[in-house]
From TrEMBL:
Name of the protein: Short-chain dehydrogenase/reductase SDR
Domain of life: Bacteria
Keywords attached to this entry: Oxidoreductase
Ketoreductase domain residues: 8-186
Lineage: Bacteria, Bacillati, Actinomycetota, Thermoleophilia, Solirubrobacterales
InterPro entries reported in the protein's UniProt record: KR_dom, NAD(P)-bd_dom_sf, Sc_DH/Rdtase_CS, SDR_fam
Leader sequence residues: none
Length: 248
């Protein structure tokens, strides 16, 4: 399939690790110039730059701060002249149950996962509207459908909110030629889930229909699909990437 992504410009928040890094690699392989926005994107950007000389940028941002989220978008436009694709993969994960969760952890989880997604996407839609074309892929989670495995209430609430936000943004962005969809991963083996107990990861694998947990590349493949030229009639959708863990 020709994705039509050759020469396009992509911004990936959380692009230094896990799913974001896999998405950045996959988009670069399709010919995108890629801006990595993360708390510390230097190592990942240097690695990607070696494979794709001149096609990689980096910007240090904390997406929970609205001005820094907007800065990620302006950095991509300044470096590469336009913005076509946004992947909002920056995220944090708390494992405390309802009774163990601190006020600070609640606020931080919502600020990064939900507000960070909103502020990056809002600015990106304005930048994409200049060219009348854009693709935004947000990161939800099957935790929003199941109530969470190891994830606690702040994580679950933030990801359920991202799914609603995705639909609201799709309404706002559609007339501007921009689609907004979310991927809804099950348990994916990344640094985020490395800290789960091994038995938790093993149980999660047995709950899928394919008998394994996901890889970052599994999710990146769907992100590339949603970002591709041919998917212009798909917006406001949630695409499960969970090995059959949840079917809806
Ligand atoms: N791994 C999974 O099982 C899984 C499942 C469903 C959804 N997700 C979601 O996918 C996304 C990526 O997760 P991952 O597993 O690749 O995790 P990860 O920890 O490997 O990567 C997350 C990245 O986000 C960055 N980040 C965190 N806070 C940030 C901030 N305030 N500003 C900028 N960058 C920040 C981190 O530095 C890191 O590079 C997250 O939104 C996560 O909730 C992951």
């Amino acid at each position: 399939m020709d994705t039509g992504l050759d020469g396009k410009v992509a911004l990936v928040t959380g692009g230094a690790s896990g799913i974001g890094l896999a998405a950045a690699r996959a988009l670069a392989a399709e010919g995108c110039r890629v801006m990595l926005a993360d708390l510390d994107p230097r190592t990942a950007a240097a690695e990607l730059e070696r494979a794709h000389p001149g096609a990689v940028g980096e910007v240090v941002v904390d997406v929970s701060a609205p001005a820094q989220a907007r800065r990620a978008v302006s950095a991509a436009v300044e470096r590469f002249g336009r913005l076509d694709v946004l992947v909002t993969s920056a995220g944090v994960y708390e494992t405390q149950g309802v009774d163990g969760l601190s006020d600070e952890e609640w606020d931080r989880t919502l600020a990064v996962n939900l507000s960070g997604t909103y502020h990056c996407a809002h600015a990106a839609i304005d930048a994409m509207a200049v060219n009348g074309w854009g693709r935004i892929v947000t990161l939800a989670s099957s935790a929003a459908q199941t109530g969470g495995g190891a994830g606690g209430p702040a994580y679950v609430a933030s990801k359920a909110a991202v799914m609603g936000l995705t639909r609201s943004l799709a309404k706002h962005a559609g007339p501007k030629g921009v689609t907004v969809n979310s991927v809804v991963p099950g348990l994916i083996e990344t640094p985020m889930t490395d800290r789960l107990r091994p038995e938790h990861r093993e149980i999660a694998a047995t709950l899928t229909l394919v008998g394994r947990n996901g890889t970052p590349a599994d999710v990146a493949a769907v992100i590339v699909m949603l970002a591709s030229e041919g998917l212009g009639f798909v917006t406001g959708s949630h695409v499960n990437v969970n090995g059959g863990l949840v079917m809806d």
